[in-house]
Specification:
With about 300 residues, the chain is mostly helical. It has helices at about 10-15, 20-30, 45-60, 65-75, 80-110, 115-125, 130-145, 150-160, 170-180, 185-205, 210-225, 240-250, 260-270, 275-285, 295-310; strands at about 35, 45. The chain contains 15 helices and two strands. The longest helix is centred in the N-terminal third of the chain and has 32 residues, at about 80-110. It starts with 8 loop residues before the first helix and ends with a helix.
Length: about 300
C-alpha cells in the first residue's frame, strides 16, 4: 500500500470500525477533513486521515470531548499531556465512585433515611482539608481563648480524620457520626466545660500534663475490682478507692482528705462524658487505628465508689 491510496467513506468505515455517519460528522466539523473528492464528488481520504480517525476513536473511547481531541490533532497539546490529565480526572472519578459505594453500603447497613443518606454522601465527599477544617473549628470553638492543657489540645489538633481512598462502609459511617457529633451544641458545651475546668486547674498551678499514669492506675485497680465482681459501695471497694485517692494526692501534691475526694469527684464527672470517648473511638475507626478499649465501665465504677464514700 503506497502513500497515494485514497479511501471512500465506506472503505474507511470498514477499516476503522466507525460508522459512515460518524466519519461524515468528523469530516464536516473539520476534525478529519477529506483529502480529495472523486470525479463524482464523493469524499476521499488518505492514510493520514485513516490515522487521525484511529486516534479520534481511541480518544473518544477514553472519554475525551471533541474540543480536547481537536487540540490533540492540531498539536496544541500532546497525547501524553492529555493522557496524564485524563488519568488525573479518572482518579477523582474513581475516588468519588468508591465513596459513593461505601456510603450506599453504610446506608444499607444502618437503614438510613434518604435525608441521612444525602448528608452522609455530602460529608464523605469533603476533601481532606475540609474535614480537617471542620475538626479545627470544633477545637477552636471549645478550647479557644482558654489556657487549657496545651498537650491535650495539641494532641487533638494532630489527630485529624483521614478517610482512605477506598473506605469501608464503617469508616464512612463513623465519619458521618463524628461530623454530627462535633457540630452538636450540647457536646460542644460539654467539651467547653472540660476545657474551662482544665484552665481553672492550670490557673491554680496544675501544669502536670495529661496524667496517663493516673488513668493507667485507675484502669488497673478498678479493672481488678470489676473482674472480682466488687460492688462500688461495698466494703471490699474501700481499699481500691483509698489506693487511688492516695495516688491522686501525691500527683497533685494535696492532702488525701474529704476535700480531695470531692474535688476528684467533680473532676471525673466533668471528664466522664461518654461522648468524649466516642469521639476518639470514631476517629480511630476512620483512620484505621486500633480502637482503644472503653474506659467508661472503669470510671463509672470509680465515680460510684467515690459518691458512696462521700455519703458516709
Amino acid at each position: 500500500m503506497d502513500g497515494d491510496t485514497l479511501y471512500t467513506i465506506g472503505a474507511l468505515a470498514r477499516r476503522t470500525g466507525l460508522t459512515v455517519k460518524a466519519i461524515r460528522f468528523y469530516s464536516d466539523t473539520g476534525i478529519v477533513p477529506s483529502t480529495d473528492r472523486s470525479p463524482a464528488g464523493y469524499r476521499l481520504y488518505d492514510l493520514d486521515a485513516l490515522a487521525r480517525l484511529d486516534l479520534v476513536r481511541t480518544l473518544r473511547e477514553l472519554g475525551l470531548d471533541l474540543a480536547v481531541i481537536r487540540q490533540v490533532l492540531d498539536r496544541e497539546i500532546s497525547v501524553p499531556e492529555v493522557a496524564a490529565a485524563h488519568a488525573d480526572a479518572l482518579d477523582v472519578q474513581i475516588r468519588t465512585l468508591r465513596l459513593r459505594r461505601a456510603v450506599l453500603r453504610a446506608v444499607a447497613k444502618r437503614g438510613s433515611t434518604s435525608e441521612e443518606m444525602d448528608l452522609m454522601h455530602k460529608l464523605a465527599r469533603l476533601s481532606d482539608e475540609e474535614r480537617r477544617r471542620l475538626i479545627h473549628d470544633f477545637i477552636d470553638d471549645t478550647f479557644g481563648g482558654l489556657d487549657a492543657n496545651p498537650d491535650f489540645v495539641a494532641m487533638m489538633r494532630s489527630a485529624m480524620p483521614e478517610l482512605p481512598e477506598d473506605p469501608e462502609p464503617e469508616q464512612v459511617d463513623a465519619w458521618a457520626e463524628l461530623a454530627e457529633l462535633t457540630r452538636d451544641p450540647d457536646f460542644r458545651a460539654a467539651v467547653r466545660q472540660m476545657a474551662e475546668h482544665q484552665a481553672a486547674e492550670r490557673a491554680r498551678g496544675d501544669t502536670t500534663g495529661l496524667h496517663h499514669d493516673l488513668t493507667e492506675a485507675v484502669r488497673d485497680q478498678v479493672g481488678h475490682a470489676l473482674t472480682a465482681g466488687i460492688a462500688p459501695a461495698s466494703a471490699e471497694a474501700t481499699p481500691v478507692v483509698d489506693t487511688l485517692t492516695a495516688r491522686y494526692a501525691r500527683v497533685f501534691d494535696r492532702a488525701d482528705d474529704i476535700g480531695l475526694r470531692r474535688w476528684l469527684l467533680a473532676r471525673l464527672e466533668i471528664a466522664n462524658d461518654p461522648r468524649a470517648e466516642r469521639y476518639w473511638h470514631l476517629l480511630s475507626v476512620i483512620n484505621g487505628w486500633p480502637v482503644p478499649p472503653s474506659l467508661a465501665p472503669v470510671f463509672t465504677w470509680f465515680l460510684a465508689a467515690l459518691r458512696a464514700r462521700l455519703k458516709e
